[in-house]
Amino acid sequence: MSENPYLSGNFAPVDQERTDLELEVTGQIPVELSGRLLRIGPNPIAPNPETYHWFTGNGMLHGVRLREGRAEWYRNRFVLDDEIVEARGLPPVAGPARDMLGGGVANTNVIGHAGKTYAIIEAGNLPVELTDELETVARVDFGGTLPGGFTAHPKRDPDTGELHCAVYSPMFEQIQHVVVGADGKVNRVVDVPVPGRPMVHDCALTENFFILLDLPVILDPETGSSFPFAWHPEYGARVGLLPRNGQADEVVWCEVEPCFVFHPLNAYEDEDGRVVLDVIRHPKMFATDSHGLNEGVPTLDRWIVDPRGGKVKEERLDDRGQEFPRMDERRIGKPYRYGYTTRFEEVGFGGIYKHDLKDGKIEVHDEGPARQFMEAVFVPRSDDADEDDGWVMTYVYDASSNKTDVVIQHAQDFSGAPVATIHLPARVPFGFHGNWLPDAG
Ligand SMILES: [Fe+2]
Question: How far is the CA of 108 from the centre of ligand 1 (A)?
Fold first, then answer.
């Protein structure tokens, strides 16, 4: 049997939960950065190498706390689920009891909303509330307002503070538009029927539309791995424009060439009312390898979607392999100029890219092949700072030391030396997503 690539190298899980205080720093952490840089990914406690899929491992959080120019702590903690509490002899995870996939695993993203911190995942499981120091509190359904599961990729409307979510479940032929208000309660649920059971990892938002991705990675119990979705191009591929306050029968569906998108970068409406949707496009997904992510180069593409209908117009912005797109989230759903992506080729990481989408310029930050950057998070210098006046913060695995650093650089000096490199005493496995959670006030 060949080795499972998602259990080796820096994909391999770590077995220790650590708390390390007053971290070593090269350079100077900007004093404006007061809060926590959190990340999450799969960290299976007892995987079967023959069936283990990267998307299904028990969740583990990693966090660094910054204050007054210091890195106060690094912590990593499991997100408790049924398998972990049983293995450790702990009481069951608190919160609503529901049928949960994989024992209630939450491993894909970590967000702050309405004063709380949540580990989140798609396809049916509930969010898991965490303490500021990353201990599991309980599974939550937002005070009984969340009817089903959640998503790993809510989009926060920068004007209202609401979270817009595409929620799906392998049980239903639908995609739900779920909106969580700034008060932390769900205030809208609209079920949009689709002709199958697609995997819907992410979504996008514009001034007038919530954007649905109905793409040909479909429920398929025959995959042989613990992840039951596979490539079925005969399903077709469509982008749906749902008026933000509209009903399911108002969705305008526009066909697109079959492909798979985990992550849009952003979307907005142009002067002609067309939707500009920038995405990381994989030509196929889970077609020949149920472990996936290696079926052609994931490129940065621009899609033009016309609310009057017709096929999506596609344009390639950058043909290098890249993933984990991020931007200045004050501009979600609005015209924007800058995007940040992570090099991702043959399931391998490297440097990061800054895209100037106005001038078509691309800058690279690369610290050599041993330094493997994960998802880059942009943090503005202040609430009213210019779009790229802020910092790009990234967890970086260093293969030569087998440890991880957090690199902070100013976005306007993207290729230059970092302003600070925080040295963690441990390895953070390659995972999925994270965010900067600033201190309140
Ligand atoms: Fe994702």
Answer: 7
* Element spanning 83, H or E: helix 82-88
As given in the structure block, the two tokens for residue 72 are: 């106060």
How far is it, in rounded angstroms, from Cα 185 to Cα 166? 16
Residues in the chain, pLDDT under 70: 1-2, 441
What pLDDT is recorded for position 441? Answer: 60
Task: In whole angstroms, give the CA distance from residue 359 to residue 107.
Answer: 37
H helices, E strands: number in the chain:
1, 32
CATH code for residues 5-335:
2.120.10
The two beta strands, 229-231 and 238-243, are: unpaired
Question: What is the full DSSP assignment across 275-332?
Answer: EEEEEEEBS-SSSS-TT-S-SS--EEEEEEE-TT--PPEEEEEE-S-EEEEEE-GGGT
CA of 89 to the centre of ligand 1 (A): 31
What are 214's two structure tokens?
């109905």
Query: For the chain, which residues make up each domain, given as ranges?
Result: 5-335
Report how far ligand 1's centroid is from the alpha carbon of 332 (Å). Answer: 16
- The pLDDT score that the predictor gives to residue 1 is 44
CA 118 – ligand 1 centroid, Å: 15
User: Ligand 1 centroid vs 202 CA: distance in angstroms?
Assistant: 7
* DSSP helix/strand/coil, 5: helix
Distance 261 CA to ligand 1 centre (A): 10
Q: How far is the CA of 412 from the centre of ligand 1 (A)?
A: 26
CB-based contact 139:99 (threshold 8 Å) = no
- Dihedral over Cα of 371, 377, 383, 389: its sign: positive
The overall pTM is greater than 0.85: yes
